[in-house]
Amino acid sequence: MEDELGTTLFERSVSGSVPTESARELLKYWKACRLQLEDLEQKINEISNLSRGSVRIATAEGFVPDLQQQVILPFSDIHPNIQFTVEVLSVSEIVEAVADGICHIGVAFNPPASQRLVSIADVAIPLRLAVRPQHPLASHQGPLSVRKAFAYPLAMLTGSYGIRRLLDHVAYSEQTPLIPAITTNSLHLAVEYALNTNVGTFIDPFHISDHLNSGRLPSFKVEHPLLDSGRASVLIRAGQTLPTAAREIVDWILYKSKASRSVSSR
Hey, which of 23, 27, 135, 185 would disulfide with 9, CB 3.0 to 4.6 Å? Predict the structure, then answer.
């Protein structure tokens, strides 16, 4: 150790060895290191036992109520020292936030494929046309054709959202243009527009279940395979080892949220 440090640690004589000032400083350093190691071990133990930690989630607006009620609030009751950050973003922003390591977990509708991400679970999310009872299509029986559904104005999300991109693909494949009455980046605003005007909106029944059950917003299947191909994906960064709290939250999303009944885990 003296050779490594380039200093004398003991003054040696026939009567014995006496530590030098350098040795005393080295002892202080070792004690400080031991305390830091003990502190680190304690913190790691707290994180492993969910006594502390943080989870960062990037999600689309439509998934917020279920995440809040079925996952975050009950989890916080059990583990009150786990801190949550929830970012409500567009699908492209969710992909970027998870791929860049800004968020541990992403929940997105129809995210684009990325080698930087792994989808650990998919949930089937078919899209339906939702209209209020006063809408001209409300009395229709059975599924609608794309041409008939697209003949009326729609409350639509912006192009950064998976729902809009899917609808654009349908419009292109059927050579039937969409008629946007309003374009917004707020799912809540699109639903409210459908509730209060004769303008429909495309959304999955899961997110408007309360309105469906009350009859305030009937929904209709529109006959096109793309509209039944929607999915919500739970995303993590490829090659990432999630912290203990984040791993627990992934399990809660998969097995405790309402949507978990249609989850297909990978």
Answer: 23
pLDDT in tens, 39-62: 676 667 666 667 778 899 999 888
Number of H helices, E strands in the chain: 10, 13
pLDDT tens for 59-81 read: 988 888 889 989 999 999 999 98
Task: Tokens 């009872």: give the residue.
Answer: 133
- Which phi-psi region, left, alpha or beta, contains residue 241 (left: φ > 0; alpha: ψ -120 to 50)? beta
Task: Determine the longest span between alpha carbons in the chain, in angstroms.
Answer: 108
Distance CA 110, CA 122 (A): 10
| C-alpha torsion angle, residues 69, 74, 76, 80 (rounded to 10) | 150
Name 239's Cβ contacts closer than 8 Å, sequence gap at least 6.
Answer: none
Q: Are 224 and 197 in contact (CB under 8 A)?
A: no
